[in-house]
Write a structure and sequence with these properties.
Layout lengths: L20 E7 L8 E5 L5 E6 L18 E3 L5 H4 L2 H8 L2 E4 L1 H21 L7 H8 L2 E3 L6 E3 L2 E7 L7 E6 L4 E4 L21 E5 L10 H17 L4 E4 L5 H12 L5 E4 L2 H10 L7 H10 L1 E2 L3 H7 L4 E4 L8 H9 L6 E4 L8 H8 L1 E4 L2 E4 L3 E4 L8 H11 L3 E5 L3 H8 L7 E3 L6 E4 L3
Parallel strand pairs: 3-4, 4-5, 5-6, 10-11, 11-20, 12-15, 12-16, 13-14, 13-15, 16-19, 20-21
Antiparallel strand pairs: 1-2, 1-22, 2-3, 7-8, 8-9, 9-10, 17-18
Helix pairs in contact: 2-4, 3-7
Bound molecules: zinc ion.
């Protein structure tokens, strides 16, 4: 585990910046998630972008942040926001984000705290830090310029999930665009990200080297499979992330198969209320209101038992690492007319990955064989290789940095570019000094 000792920084250079911009990744350079990156220029303006963790067992954390007064949070996924209470507790930093990211942060942090207590991996921050973080927010509207010391900044929609942003930063010397987690395509709940002209582009590269099947076709294949399972008398169990994928699934099913009896369980039930209260971040929010009335929300133990007779159960966790999904799976696993439909990326060592590779999964500590059909669908909320390539060219940067990707993905997108823009592969803990061109 990374040691977080107050007052000690982890290898961040002490000398002043001479020109251009200094970029120093604390985490999230050569990995998906676990993001934290310090930007600084010669005016002494210094910000941290995102401060997350990787929810593995044990969790991984970015390197310790040097002192900062301002942190910009691109979106509310735990791999981007999980360590924000630490930086508020230790450096009294202000957190900048959208109103929706602010609203959802409390649920995300409380859940992280709860999971860490259950799993026995103490977090580097405590409840006092969490309370301080809740008071540390300063929210900004999309497209509205705001200032941090010598810099001007504004948010642009990043696609991905509601409330997720890209950050445009104008320093006295150059313009930098930070992509955050990005999708250029429209999805059920958000509009796609649009290019922004810049000198330096920091680009997430989760899907470097990979293409997605056309979204409409994949949604149709998914709906067909749900209908097949239901028509043979089974329940379709759909593990989905609480923030993004679960609500996408509900919208797809409501549109294509409104006759189905769909139950929704887990943290997403509380989270979606915040979405509804922040309609400016949602694509067609009236439609989401309708979907929300249509889906049956599981709110009690007896609701959960009733849901076993549903056609479809959409629930957390998305990677079958715990949550109500495991409770349902344990009860549904004996009837082979039921099926599991996985709709997202299943990380190494996750329950979902073990289920695909070995047909087994830990259920309350016992590795259990699962004989149900397991199907996978690609309903990603990240840009594909070709989406990324066209987005990068349209932003017209002189330099592009690829972060937030494993080695294979980053190399695949890196080799697309030689000059114009010049590609760069940053590493965690290394310092880059970049000028405008
Ligand atoms: Zn994300």
């Amino acid at each position: 585990m990374v040691l977080y000792t107050p007052g000690r920084t982890s290898g961040y250079p002490e000398e002043e910046v001479k020109e251009g911009i200094r970029i120093h990744f604390l985490g999230g350079a050569e990995e998906v998630g676990n993001v934290g990156c310090i930007l600084e220029d010669k005016t002494g303006t210094r910000i941290l972008i995102d401060y997350g963790l990787a929810p593995t067992k044990p969790p991984r954390y970015p390197k310790e942040s040097p002192a900062v007064d301002h942190v910009i949070i691109t979106h509310s996924h735990i791999d981007h926001i999980g360590m924000a209470p630490w930086v508020v507790g230790n450096h009294r930093a202000t957190l900048h984000g959208t109103t929706l990211t602010e609203a959802v942060s409390e649920i995300m942090w409380r859940d992280t705290y709860k999971v860490s207590s259950i799993e026995g991996y103490p977090l580097p921050w405590d409840m006092r830090d969490l309370d301080a973080a809740l008071d540390a927010w300063q929210s900004h509207d999309i497209g509205e310029w705001f200032e941090i010391e010598a810099w001007k900044l504004r948010f642009h929609p990043a696609g991905h999930i509601p409330g997720a942003v890209m950050i445009e930063i104008q320093t006295p010397e150059l313009t930098l665009l930070w992509s955050g987690d990005l999708d250029t395509r429209e999805s059920p709940n958000v509009i796609g990200a649009q290019p922004v002209k810049c000198d330096i582009l920091c680009m997430e590269s989760t899907y470097g080297g990979k293409e997605h099947p056309p979204r409409a076709e994949e949604e149709a294949r998914f709906v067909e499979r749900v209908k097949e399972v239901v028509s043979r008398g089974g329940v379709a169990l759909i593990p989905a992330f609480a923030s993004g994928r679960g609500q996408d699934i509900l919208r797809i099913l409501h549109k294509e198969a409104p006759h189905l009896n769909v139950h929704y369980d887990g943290m997403g039930t509380r989270l979606t209320k915040y979405w509804l209260n922040n309609p400016e971040h949602i694509r067609n929010p009236e439609e989401l209101e309708k979907v929300w009335r249509w889906a049956r929300k599981v709110r009690s133990k007896s609701d959960r038992k009733k849901a076993l007779d549903a056609d479809v159960i959409v629930t957390t966790s998305g990677m079958l690492d715990g949550g109500p999904a495991i409770w349902y799976l344990n009860r549904l696993r004996h009837d082979l007319s039921n099926a599991i439909l996985l709709t997202g990326y299943q990380a190494e060592k996750s329950g979902g990955r073990q289920l695909i590779d070995e047909g087994k999964i830990p259920i309350y500590g016992n590795v259990t064989q699962i004989d149900l059909d397991v199907n996978q669908f690609q309903l990603s909320n990240h840009a594909s290789h070709s989406d990324m390539t066209s987005f990068i060219h349209a932003c017209e940067p002189n330099q592009v940095l690829f972060f937030h990707g494993d080695d294979e993905a980053r190399k695949a997108i890196f080799t697309e570019f030689q000059q114009n823009p010049k590609p760069i592969l940053p590493l965690n803990g290394n310092t880059l000094n970049l000028s405008k061109s």
